[in-house]
Amino acid sequence: MTSDLFRKLRGQNRAALVAFITCGDPCMDFSERLAERICGAGADIVELGVPFSDPMADGKSIQASSKRALAGGTTFADVADMARRLRDKGVSNPFVLFSYFNPVFKFGVERAVKKCADSKIDSMLIVDLPLEESAEVAAAARPAGVELIPMAAPTTPLKRVEELSKNGSGFLYYATVAGVTGARGALPEGFASRLCGVRGASKLPVAAGFGISTPEMARAAAQNADAVVVGSRLVDLVHRTLSEKGEDAAINAAADFIASLAVQMGR
Amino acid sequence: MNAFKYTKNGKFGVYGGCYVSETLMEALKELDRRFVEAMADKSFIGEYASLLRDYVGRPSSLYFAERLTEYCGGARIYLKREDLNHTGAHKINNTIGQALLARRMGKRRLIAETGAGMHGVATATVAALFGMPCEVFMGAEDIRRQSQNVARMKMLGAKLVSVNGERGEATLKDAMNEALRYWTATVDDTFYVIGTAAGPHPYPTMVREFQAVIGREAKAQILEKCGRLPSQVVACVGGGSNAIGMFEPFIDEPSVALCGAEAAGAGIETGLHAASLSAGSVGVLHGNKTYLLQDENGQILNTHSVSAGLDYPGVGPEHSFLKDSGRASYTPICDAEAVDAFCALCRLEGIIPALESSHAVALAMKNAKKLSRDDIIVVSLSGRGDKDMDSVSEYLNKRA
């Protein structure tokens, strides 16, 4: 459970490092190796991205990786099965299944939640399922012991942040910018004070994501958040290295990058 | 609210809703609030009505297509001439309403997605009228096949954003993805003018209300001309904005059949089509739950239609509801039938219809043959076909 992890990290005065990967980019075997390695390199939590044909909340990097993953036919079930194999290998880091709603809906909400629970996936985050539409998933997730991670944004009033955190579990994912995912050059203006407000309002630990792409940005984010998410930059780095230098080099590059971020998580 | 209107969270039965990322939620809630408030404000309604009258040229005529009727040899066919509106289609009814709302909400600029380009032109037009900057998102394939509308949008001062596909050819779906992404980043000062009766709540309801003028006028006009309600009203359905506008005032008239024509492309059996109601399954895309063309893993499929405006894998959620409840029926019309109807209307009536509207004409012609002279069919002729001359020639050359 992510709650145990956050308790432990609080004792160490560290933020959690959350790494996002698009599963199946370019194939499931590679993603499995990648996930295992970045867990060893310092990622505290791994977000396992389920590719979707129409990723409306994502920028160019994750759009492109989703397309590559779908070219290989990756499905929701493939992602859950991969999580299960990683568990069998002894990887114990919390996993967040990260998806758009339609692949989950088409699989069947109850069946999908059960599949996550059986695969020892700790949490689900469904990008296009706001609180108002989440009752069915929440009702299935609670008895199955699967956390449902809520999202908040710069446009979310603090009163709603509180409400979201009360209805969710695990942690609250705060998108630091209004916009789509994608590496950015700097943290947005007023980042620290806004995050302070969000943390004050949230009953759950707060993870800061969207745009964080360098150790410097990760360090600044770690000062103000309970967790720091890196996604697009990692996805890009892996893809670029993979196409230029092959699988082993790509996995090494990812591990080095994650290690360089992990050392910035202390406060 | 009667049984067919939305209740909580913009649901039509199980369809509709508001499936978007959290960033957009406050903006959509505010839009819902301000829309309901505006519709109850006499000055807003008055300004909307006067623009429809003086700027768009409403009411559009209801025309008895006598030669087409004779040709089919059955029911009398009346055409609701939305093609005669300013900008050449029904789309302007909605863009005027939404632009007025944008201005009332203090939004600085407009964005829109477009397929055939008619909604893009209608949005660029109102942006010029209200002095607002405007960006239109359009799929690369549609830019190619609707070049005349591209030129019109540019001439009107809109900025055109070419969108490449997620997989394969880029059409309306991809344009809508990109417009939604752009809106997520600019939601503070930007109003997203959605052109079809789909998208997250409150768009399906808002678009229906702004398009219902089609059905209200048609109902009054047919009562005046014939002293009775029609046996059927017929409209094409892509996202379904002209259809829902035409159907709305007839939903509570059980004697009137509501008939939608979907794009069957090369034929349902070929898999190359855009008939989400006839051949799709329920899913969630672009903020609403509705019938979609998708694979067994919930990935959205590419669509195919000779008409860019119907080339969309989803459909407005109220149509999904009307289908399930049995109140409306939806019939697939293939490219060949639509082009034949296009040619028939040109030659018999001297009217060049949009390829989208030609699907409705084709269905009306089929249905008319099964009915008698005592029956009346009212067809929504949603747009004119000047934009489609290249597509039709290309199609006819290929077929020849």
Describe the structure.
The complex is a heterodimer of chains A (267) and B (400). Chain A is an alpha/beta fold and 267 residues long. Chain A has a single domain, classed as TIM Barrel (Alpha-Beta Barrel), CATH 3.20.20.70. Chain A contains twelve helices and nine strands. Chain A has helices at 2-12, 28-41, 60-71, 76-88, 101-107, 109-118, 135-144, 158-167, 191-201, 215-224, 232-245, 247-262, and strands spanning 16-22, 45-49, 95-99, 123-126, 147-148, 151-152, 172-175, 206-209, 227-230. In chain A, strands 5-4-3-2-1-9-8-7-6 form a nine-stranded parallel beta sheet. In chain A, helix 7 links the parallel strand 4 and strand 5 (147-148). The radius of gyration of chain A is 17 Å and the shape is globular. The model of chain A has no long low-confidence stretch (mean pLDDT 97). Chain B is α/β, with parallel strands linked by helices. Chain B has helices at 25-39, 42-56, 66-72, 91-104, 118-130, 140-145, 147-155, 172-186, 203-226, 241-247, 276-279, 317-325, 335-349, 355-369, 389-399, and strands spanning 11-12, 15-19, 62-64, 76-81, 109-114, 134-139, 159-163, 190-192, 232-237, 257-265, 281-285, 287-292, 328-334, 376-381. In chain B, strands 3-4-14-9-10-13 form a six-stranded mixed beta sheet, sandwiched between helices. Chain B has a four-stranded antiparallel beta sheet with strand order 1-2-12-11. In chain B, helix 2 (42-56) packs across helix 4 (91-104) and helix 13 crosses helix 14 (355-369). The interface between A and B is large, with 42 and 35 residues.
